[in-house]
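Predict both folds.
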Amino acid sequence: MSTIHFEFNKEDVSDLVIMPGDPLRAKYIAENYLSNVKQINRTRNMFGYTGLYKGKRISVIGSGMGIPSMGIYSYELYKFYDVKNIIRIGTCGGYSPDLKLFDVVLVDKTYSDSNYGFNLCKNKSKLVSSSNILNNKIEETAISLGINIKKGNNHTSEVFTPYIDSYNPIKIIKKYKCITSEMEAFSLFINAELLGKESACILTVSDTQLDKRVISKEEREKKLTDAIILGLESLLRL
């Protein structure tokens, strides 16, 4: 059985999924961290792979950019392919002055003005939680690997905020205690809550208001080593 957005069958995908936004990042993770890799999806160039990480079967599948794209792909994985756990691996902007470029952040809750939840299932929540089960496992794994992570709330924006000249997140920061900003976690968490699944989001800081350096496209695709290893090792321990 395949769906509109995936060409593979249920048996082709693991119930443990790493989900980067960029399909090329999915390709990079599969080729550099998994063995016995099989490409399971090419539809719309949203690349997906299944292979072994230290003997455990794991899938890596892109989500695309934005709440709707993540909403589609994670919903189908949860609903039609019996996926139980999805860890999003992505980049983010840093709201907190304590965050530096390439810091790793574990999202606790994410806030969004999006109507995704209401349109999907009449969920009016604007602040939704990730999975305590997955987050606890990620935190335990980070300690065992010596990877320093920071945990906090996130802002899932529907617009790429650097494009907004007048953008000022101060109200969001104060009211919802957001330390980062990205564009996908909200729909992932909504879908997991709706369908009784587990979701988590590990972010790497790629931009901050205090550091004007610009990270290259190649760095955005490939320089997420700590986050990638943390995600894979956490799934290994489930």
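Second protein follows, with its predicted structure tokens after the sequence.
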Amino acid sequence: MKTLQLIQQHALSIPMTVSWYLSDIGRAQGLQDLFTRQSPQKLKVLREHAIAQSSVSSNRIEGVEIDQTRIGTVVFGRPALKDRDEEEVAGYRNALNLIHERGAVLAVSEETILSLHKLSRGEIWDAGQYKDKPIDIIERLPNGDHRVRFRSVSPAKTPAHIRKLVELWGDQICAHTISPLILLAAFNLDFLCIHPFRDGNGRVSRLLLLLTCYHVGIDVGRYVSLERLIEDNKERYYETLQISSKGWHESKHDPWPYIGFLLFIIKKAYDELEERAGRIAAPRGEKTELVEQAVQSFLTDFSVADVERLCPSVSRDMIRHLLRKLKDRGLVECVGRGPGAKWRKKGNTP
């Protein structure tokens, strides 16, 4: 809430780089309706793909990972879940479904925040409950020692801080004194600095990013996984969060690195949607196109598992089939044997 308070006090000046992001995103929003009208069937595939990637990536950022062969079943099926990690991925999917189904109608409220935590934590014992002990962000030093990098809000003050955060969000959105894109990124930073839960704060922050995007008219997260883009830029994510959280308790922090990072992620999502929508008329099947896009993104040799990581909604058998078709067309070659065999784009050097 410290960042939203600074905005309320008109104590922040917008950097030029942030202004550029706002301009680029504004342009992309103008094309959003065009994209969504062009091909409902294609966008349906993109939605499924985004849900799978978001469920897996947001958990993988926190060290929660499931067997690649189980992703489709866990995300889209009704499986008997094998372990705690699968429960968390399935729980995150349920939280995503709630946001995608209700969009801007789902209030940004304390009740919603607690509900998203309960869903995304897979009904663990303290799901939907605030932390009951102090939570500090600990940094491991090169010499093996540890130091406290950030002290979150105390358990006793956490509920009041969350309520104030939600109140400031509502007031600032109605005030129209600053771009709502800046507000949603500031809200996200403040939430992470409050750190209201024992575990799962990062995952809830990414769900809140998607929800607040819906509230300000940004639907790109329905078709492109914001969580996957954050995972792809994980080092920058942690670096900007560390910089922007320094001095937060005293309202002496610099929120712009983290705000700029989230705007960069939204812009990247629109760039990706525009690229895919530009090929709407391509005659190939949608999953074929997803796999071909993944193959084109590799700069070095890759495996079936590498493609599977980028295309979680496509089965392993389908990926193998499509790689064989690409081989027949002379676009790739297999450079090994067995399940772990590597593939290479034709023309790439070892």
